[in-house]
Write a structure and sequence with these properties.
mainly beta, Beta-galactosidase, Chain A, domain 5, 3 helices
Length: 399
C-alpha cells in the first residue's frame, strides 16, 4: 500500500469564510443522526452557555457530528469497502459525560487550546517575563491547563450544511497564559470525503499557542476490540524522545533502526508491546511527536499537499490520510484506555473501550516548544498584530 502521494490540494484554499449567519441550525431533535446520536442529549447549559449538536453531511452520504462543547467531533460516519457506513471515532453520546471530568475524563474529538501537549514545569518565559501556568499533569501543564478550551463552550455558527465555525475568546491570564486570545476553529466536510480543519487566532499580548484536534480513530468501526491491527505510516525521519513524564528531552532522534520507523506502513501490533525500546516501555505504547518531512525548517513552512501520515484498517478497507502545515504530529495509541477505572466507563452506545483501541494523529508544534524553540524546534509564539494559522485535513477513502 503506497500512501505518500502528492496531488491533494488543500481544501483550505477552497473555503470561503462567509459572513455571520443568524440562522444557526444544530441537528434536529426530531430524529437520530446517522451515527445513532440523539441531538437532545447535547442540549444543555454549561458555564452559562448553551450547547448543541451540529451535523455536517456531504454528497457521498458521509456524516460528521460536532458539539460546541470543547469543539468536539462526536462521530464520523464513512463508508467501508462494502459501502457500509462506519463510525470511526471514539466518544460519548451525551454532553453531560463529556463535561464530567471527575467520572469520565477525556479529550475525545476536542479542539485543543491554548496549547496542545505539555509545557514542562507549568511555566515559560517571553522576553523578561515568566508566566506561571496552572499544572494539571503532575508538575506540567497539559492541553492548556485544567480549564482548557476542550472544557469550554464555543460560540457556534453553522455556515451551511458542510461548514461549522466555532469561536472562543480566552481572557488574559486564562490558566496563566498571557493575552486575550480570540480563536476560530472551522470544520468543513468536503465532497471528496475530507474533514478539513483550520485554526486561526489573534492575541492582545505576546503568547504561545498550539492548537490541534484530538480525535481518537478506530477505522475498524468496532471500538469494543483492540485496534492494533491498524496499519500506520508516518512521513518522518525523526522523532522527539521524551522522559518518563512525557516531556521531550530536547533531542531530535532518527527513527531508523527503531520501532518508530513508520516510513513504510506497519501494523501497530508489530511494535506496540516492544518494551525493549525504552520509549514504548515508558509510554505503554506510542505517545510521541514525529518531526514531519513535509515541513521545511529553512522557511518554517509545511506542505499540506503531501501526506504527513496515514492509518489503514485491513478489516474495513478504510484509509485515513492526514495533511497539515504543522512541523509535527503526535501519535498516541490509546495507552490509557481500558486501564484501571477507565475500563468500566461506558462510552458511545454503551461500549467499554479496551487499551490500544484507537490512534490519535494530532498535528502540532513540537511539545514543550517554549523551552526548546530554536533552529530545529519551531516557535509557538504569537505576537499582537499577527494571526496564528494552523491547518489539518483528514481525508477518508477505501483501499
Amino acid at each position: 500500500m503506497k500512501t505518500f502521494v502528492k496531488g491533494f490540494v488543500s481544501a483550505t484554499a477552497a473555503i470561503v469564510l462567509m459572513a455571520a449567519c443568524t440562522d444557526q441550525k444544530p441537528a434536529t431533535t426530531a430524529e437520530l443522526t446517522v451515527s445513532g446520536l440523539d441531538p437532545e442529549q447535547f442540549i444543555d447549559t454549561i458555564n452559562g452557555k448553551a450547547t448543541a449538536l451540529y451535523t455536517l453531511t456531504n454528497a457521498n452520504g458521509m456524516e460528521v457530528c460536532i458539539t460546541n462543547f470543547g469543539g468536539r467531533v462526536v462521530s464520523i460516519m464513512v463508508p467501508d469497502r462494502e459501502g457500509n457506513l462506519k463510525d470511526v471515532v471514539l466518544g460519548y453520546d451525551n454532553v453531560q459525560q463529556y463535561a464530567d471530568r471527575e467520572n469520565s475524563p477525556s479529550d475525545y474529538g476536542a479542539s485543543i487550546g491554548r496549547y496542545a501537549n505539555r509545557i514542562s514545569k507549568h511555566s515559560f518565559t517571553i522576553g523578561e517575563e515568566t508566566y506561571e501556568l496552572v499544572p494539571n499533569d503532575g508538575d506540567n501543564c497539559l492541553h492548556g491547563g485544567p480549564t482548557g478550551w476542550q472544557y469550554q463552550v464555543y460560540d457556534a455558527e453553522q455556515v451551511d450544511g458542510q461548514t461549522l465555525k466555532l469561536t472562543i475568546v480566552s481572557p488574559d491570564g486564562d490558566n496563566g497564559f498571557p493575552g486575550e486570545v480570540t480563536a476560530v476553529t472551522t470544520y468543513t466536510l468536503t465532497d471528496d470525503n475530507v474533514l478539513d480543519i483550520t485554526w486561526e487566532a489573534t492575541t492582545t499580548k505576546e503568547t504561545v499557542i498550539n492548537q490541534t484536534n484530538h480525535c481518537y480513530f478506530n477505522l475498524n468501526g468496532d471500538p469494543s476490540r483492540v485496534g492494533t491491527n491498524m496499519v500506520l505510516c508516518v512521513n518522518a525521519d525523526n522523532f522527539t524522545p521524551s522522559d518518563i513524564y512525557y516531556i521531550p528531552t530536547g533531542e531530535i532522534a532518527p527513527v531508523e533502526g527503531t520501532p518508530f520507523d513508520f516510513r513504510e506502513p506497519r501494523a501497530l501490533e508489530e511494535i506496540i508491546n516492544d518494551t525493549t525500546f525504552t520509549q514504548i516501555k515508558n509510554a505503554g505504547g506510542v505517545d510521541h511527536n514525529f518531526c514531519l518531512n513535509t515541513y521545511d525548517m529553512d522557511t518554517y513552512r509545511g506542505d499540506d499537499s503531501q501526506v504527513a501520515a496515514s492509518l489503514y484498517s485491513p478489516e474495513t478497507g478504510i484509509l485515513l490520510e492526514v495533511f497539515t502545515n504543522e512541523p509535527g504530529i503526535q501519535v498516541y495509541t490509546g495507552n490509557f484506555q481500558g486501564v484501571g477505572r477507565d475500563a468500566d466507563i461506558l462510552r458511545k452506545h454503551g461500549i467499554k473501550y479496551p487499551k490500544h483501541v484507537s490512534v490519535c494523529l494530532e498535528s502540532q508544534k513540537y511539545p514543550d516548544s517554549p523551552h526548546f524553540a530554536g533552529e530545529n524546534w519551531p516557535s509557538a509564539n504569537l505576537k499582537p498584530g499577527d494571526t496564528y494559522f494552523s491547518h489539518c485535513a483528514y481525508k477518508f477513502s477505501v483501499k
